[in-house]
C-alpha cells in the first residue's frame, strides 16, 4: 500500500505564481515595446521580430504551465518533462528579450531577470519532482 504523495507543493505554488507573473510580464513588456516604438527611432523591420518573440513566448507559456500543473498533480514524468522542454524554449526567448531586442531598458533587464530566476527555480523543482516520480 503506497499512499505517499509525490507531487510537489512548492512546484505547484511556483507554477501558479509564474502564471500570474507572466501575465504582468507580457503586458509590461508589450507596453514597453509600444513605448519604445513611439519614443525611440525604432526601425520598422526590428519592431516585428521583437513583437513576434513576445507573442511566441506567450503561446509557449500556456502549454508549459498546463503540462507542469498536470504532470505534477498526476505525478506523471512525461508531461513534466515536456513542460521542462518548453521551459528551455521560453528561457531562450527570454534571453533574446534581455540581450538582443532592439532597445533594452532597465525595466526590461529587471523583468527578464526575475522571469529567468523563476524559470531556474521551477526547472530545479521539476527535475526533483521527476526524480521522485521515477524512483
Which key features would you list for this structure?
135 residues, mainly alpha, 4 helices, elongated
Please outline what is shown here.
The chain is an all-alpha fold. The chain is built from 4 helices and no strands. It starts with 8 loop residues before the first helix and ends with a helix.
Characterise the protein shown here.
The protein has one domain. α1 runs antiparallel to α4 and α3 (77-100) packs antiparallel against α4. It is an all-alpha fold and 135 residues long. It has helices at 9-39, 44-73, 77-100, 106-134. The mean pLDDT is 95. It starts with 8 loop residues before the first helix and ends with a helix.
Given the C-alpha coordinates, what overall shape results? elongated
Which bin fits the share of residues in helices? over 70%
Q: How many beta strands in the DSSP annotation?
A: 0
Structural class of the helices, strands and pairings?
Answer: mainly alpha
Mean pLDDT, as a whole number? 95
Oligomer: single chain
Number of helical segments with 4 or more residues: 4
Radius of gyration: 17 Å
SSE string, helices as H and strands as E: HHHH
Largest sheet geometry: none
Protein name: TMM80 protein
GO biological process, one term: non-motile cilium assembly
Membrane topology: Multi-pass membrane protein
Keywords: Cell projection, Membrane, Transmembrane, Transmembrane helix
Amino acid at each position: 500500500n503506497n499512499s505517499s504523495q509525490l507531487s510537489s507543493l512548492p512546484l505547484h505554488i511556483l507554477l501558479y505564481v509564474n502564471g500570474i507573473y507572466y501575465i504582468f510580464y507580457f503586458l509590461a513588456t508589450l507596453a514597453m515595446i509600444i513605448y519604445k516604438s513611439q519614443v525611440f527611432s525604432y526601425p520598422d523591420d526590428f519592431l516585428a521580430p521583437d513583437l513576434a518573440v513576445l507573442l511566441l513566448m506567450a503561446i509557449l507559456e500556456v502549454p508549459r504551465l498546463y503540462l507542469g500543473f498536470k504532470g505534477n498533480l498526476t505525478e506523471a514524468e512525461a508531461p513534466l518533462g515536456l513542460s521542462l522542454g518548453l521551459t528551455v524554449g521560453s528561457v531562450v526567448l527570454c534571453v533574446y528579450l534581455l540581450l538582443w531586442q532592439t532597445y533594452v531598458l532597465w525595466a526590461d533587464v529587471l523583468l527578464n531577470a526575475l522571469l529567468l530566476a523563476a524559470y531556474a527555480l521551477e526547472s530545479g523543482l521539476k527535475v526533483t519532482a521527476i526524480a521522485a516520480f521515477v524512483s
